[in-house]
Amino acid sequence: MKPIWRFLRGNGLTLAFGTGFVLALAGQAIAGHAEFNNHLIAEQLHPVSFGGYLLTSDFAVDVTENWQSEYLQFFLYIFGTVWLLQKGSPESKELDKAGLETDEEQKLGRYAKHDSPRWASAGGVRQAWYSRSLGILMCTLFVLSWLAQSVTGVAAYNEEHLRELQAPISWLQYLGAADFWNRTLQNWQSELLAVGSMAIFSVYLRQRGSPESKPVGSAHSSTGVEGG
Amino acid sequence: MRGVRTGALAAALLAALSGCGSVQEREDAAADTVLRFQENLRGPDTTRGCAQLAPGTRDELEQTAELPCPRALSDAGLPTAVDVRAVDVYGRQARVVTTRDTLFLSSFPGGWKITAAGCTERPEMPYQCLVKGG
Lengths: 228, 134
Prior knowledge:
Number of helices of chain B: 5
Oligomer: heterodimer
Number of strands of chain B: 5
Largest sheet of chain A: none
Structural class of chain A: mainly alpha
Largest interface: A-B, 21 and 30 residues
Order of helices and strands of chain B: HHHHHEEEEE
Order of helices and strands of chain A: HHHHHHHH
Shape of chain B: globular
Distance between the termini of chain A: 23 Å
Number of domains of chain B: 1
Strand order of the largest sheet of chain B: 1-2-3-4-5
């Protein structure tokens, strides 16, 4: 097999979703640009170029409000599944394994294997940090993208308000505004619905070959068993 | 050299994205537009003032007054002032508060144009304006 094909095969999941992300973002930009200009033209104002639209707070807030909820979803899922269980779900650990688990189960310290990441056996702060690095990264990305949503959101909100001959508001006022919480909560509810329904549907339904599903013949009661 | 170019490009992009790079310049330009507009209103011929109105605002003014713009603008009774007290610019829209008036502006290829003037604030509602677009 040629190296390029080996690379594509070994990284297909990341590459496919990365490509899908870029295409969807481009589609969002095209549709958002058209909608933004529709409003301007209807009010006999000057439309913006496509490049100009990509730099608007209107585009930025539409992007970041979705990013923050996705990273929140994964942070909550990663962190919540340490402690929360779902009987029969491949998304859950076995019912007696709630919590951080033992060093032996987690291959930490003297239980680390020869191919374990170096910080798994480092001890101290490095081991503690590395043990939580995935959750920390997701939480950090959530906080940063939510902050970006609030900053771009207040700019987009004020731009629209000025167009409608209304007074602008400050960033702190915007944090208590209906627009900020409507944007935030409409994304949170959909993410929580998706995670909750995935956890319970996967108890009873199967997707042959998917590691997100139990093997097709697994009992509904078997928990923490992934296929693939 | 390539590093410097990349750094400059990144800085320009960051400035553009954050909207910080030229905010002061845009605020100054909006304030200048309003001061020129008010100067044009004080003269006998308001033709130049009409040229500073956004197309929708000019159309609405002429239709409402059933007069050509210069006459309608003179008759509108807009307050004039010489000092700007506050300027807010968000994206392509701006609000300029002078000592006697509040005006709204929008960005056009030739610079800022006035979309509303003679505006009075109302709680929880849009400003009430003597001159505005449809």
